[in-house]
């Protein structure tokens, strides 16, 4: 017996809810990041985060609809 269209729609709905929950968890304010303002590249964040290049403690990450921001770990 082949799955019906309603099973397929239910499956897509469940998958979209899981993906949405994961994306909210990733950009949650309780993360390890301290956000320090806008950036275009990672090297824009070294001075804002107070680290010397090359460092993995400064990242330029997407943050909601604010665009790219510096994430200091």
Automatic annotation (TrEMBL):
Keywords linked to the UniProt accession: Antimicrobial, Disulfide bond, Fungicide, Plant defense, Signal
Protein name, entry field: Defensin-like protein 270
Family classification: Belongs to the DEFL family.
Native source species: Camelina sativa
Presence of the UniProt keyword rRNA processing in the record: no
InterPro entries to which the protein is assigned, alphabetical: DEFL (IPR010851)
Keyword Disulfide bond (UniProt): yes
Residues of the signal peptide: 1-21
